[in-house]
Amino acid sequence: MTVEELSRTGRISKAEQWEQALHLLYINFQDYIKAALKKFDEEDIHQARVNSRKLLTLLAILDPSHSSGLFPYFKQAQKLLGKVRDDDVLIDSFKKRRKDSKEAADTKSAELLKAVINYQKEKRKKHRQRLADELPKLLGKKLDEQWDTFLTVLLKPLVAKRDANVVMRELEVAFEQKKQSCRALFRRPEGDSEEAYEALHQLRIGAKELRYTANAAAFALNQKFHTHEQIYSEIQEQLGQINDKRVWLQTLNRIGREELDISKKTWEVFTDTLKAEVLDALHQEDIAHLIGKSK
Length: 295
Fold this sequence. Notes:
Helix content: over 70%
Number of strands: 0
């Protein structure tokens, strides 16, 4: 029986619900970390990062002032894992695009993408090495001792003072405010400015925060919030179509044409295509409706 099911039957207290949920995430986090450091398997990296994010989500609900001292451990772990995970995702996305280019006989784009993939693989090696060097230092006896103190001493009074439903509602209000900011920026004549795209990026982050809260704190949330994970997952996915292509552009510009040894014409054709795809994604019906932009 899950923590959520036990809580509905009244068979465990509120503090016990939180303890069971938190400790399960902690165990999963440690297990995935150990597996990830052995082979750098993409799924292990991903799951370690997901569990660290869920732990951070629940800690933010209970202990927003970070009095437990745990937040920096999981935040740094998430940051180290995130670098490698972002590399994995970016490399995979460029590989898929290169496959499409080859199938379309677009040899110039395929050549450019191969150069980007090789560059990113070298970058990933450095991030993996840093992960291997620094993560074990975070996850030792000291963290275990602080975690035990948190569960046995600090948790109960924190649970008594905090309500996940209130936090969820605050996140919803913040999301709506971000949405209003997006609408205002995208209705300007220069609606596709960097400022507007950054606002859209922040809206996506807000959707992700709501999704993670709805998932990780499901056992402590009222029924009305139980559909939020799916709702905000879909919004995050919609916004991700734009963000992914912008990340590709930003990656290319950060590396630079000279570093990749690509001709100016090939570079301009490819980057212009990406820019057009970003604009096209922005004008998709779901996105246009979300930010109140006329198609």
